[in-house]
Write a structure and sequence with these properties.
Layout: E1 10-14, H1 19-30, E2 34-39, H2 42-52, E3 56-60, H3 66-76, E4 79-84, H4 103-106, H5 115-124, E5 128-137, H6 150-169, E6 174-180, H7 193-204, H8 215-227, E7 235-238
Parallel strand pairs: 1-2, 1-4, 2-3, 4-5, 5-6, 6-7
Helix pairs in contact: 1-8, 3-5
């Protein structure tokens, strides 16, 4: 596998204006690809593209709205690889006892990461290259359930099953999923630095690699799956060994 395979290719990164998606966009451009960034915020797109350089463009897309997704891909046109890193845990980011789950809100945890990914894949199919790839994003909660997060675990597990099913259904188009561990994205910026550092140390102390990962480290997994022409239906875990302990 060589990232030279991305030279001259066109990569769509939904969620590419920040975090892991931005790192994927940077890495793809460095490998010679052009990148189209999609984000729910046009302001974030307009801030990200100049940082990425002349090989980047983008527009807003609301993955909760199928019409918005369809319009986004019609605007994008033909491309080679789709990466979906958009993430929103909704109101279920904070753990809660099962008895306190509001079932009327429960579907919200699936809205972006699962249904948003499915909507994006559905409308990408008309434009993506036959020898291209789709890479979506999961989380280690699929493999390490935690107290107060049964719906998040179920959603993350569903993404992995969706990946395997789509790899069969859409073959020979390749479909894979990256499962990141604890990564230093902008989500952590809302916590004061001293509290954040203490919290991260506690959360990663037992890992074989006792630290949080950088977005650029996870981005390598997406590059591999875009270029790995014999890999499909796979779950690539990048977690510093978190799932081992």
């Amino acid at each position: 596998m060589s990232v030279d395979q991305l030279h001259g290719k066109r990569v769509v990164v939904i969620g590419g204006s920040s975090g892991i998606g931005f790192a994927v966009a940077q890495r793809a451009i460095a490998a010679g690809a052009s990148v189209v960034v999609g984000s729910s915020s046009i302001e974030k797109v307009e801030a990200a593209c100049p940082q990425l350089g002349n090989d980047a463009s983008g527009s807003a897309v609301d993955v909760r709205d199928e019409a918005s997704v369809a319009a986004f891909f019609a605007h994008v046109g033909s491309f080679d690889h789709l990466v979906f890193t958009a993430g929103d845990w909704g109101s279920f980011r904070t753990p809660r006892p099962t008895a306190q789950i509001d079932l009327a809100e429960a579907g919200d945890v699936f809205a972006v990461r699962f249904w948003g990914a499915m909507s994006s894949i559905k409308h990408a199919l008309e434009y993506i290259a036959d020898d291209g790839s789709i890479t979506i994003t999961n989380g280690v909660v699929a493999h390490r359930p935690r107290k107060g997060a049964p719906l998040s675990t179920a959603m993350a597990g569903a993404i992995e099953h969706l990946t395997q099913a789509l790899a069969v259904d859409l073959a020979p188009l390749r479909v894979n999923v990256v499962c990141p561990g604890l990564i230093l994205t902008e989500v952590w910026d809302s916590i004061p630095a001293d509290q954040r550092d203490d919290q991260l140390k506690q959360m990663t102390a037992a890992q074989p690699l006792p630290r949080a990962g950088e977005p650029a480290e996870v981005a390598e997994a997406y590059l591999y799956l875009m270029c790995g022409s014999f890999s499909t239906g796979q779950v690539l875990v990048v977690d510093g060994g978190r799932t081992l302990v």
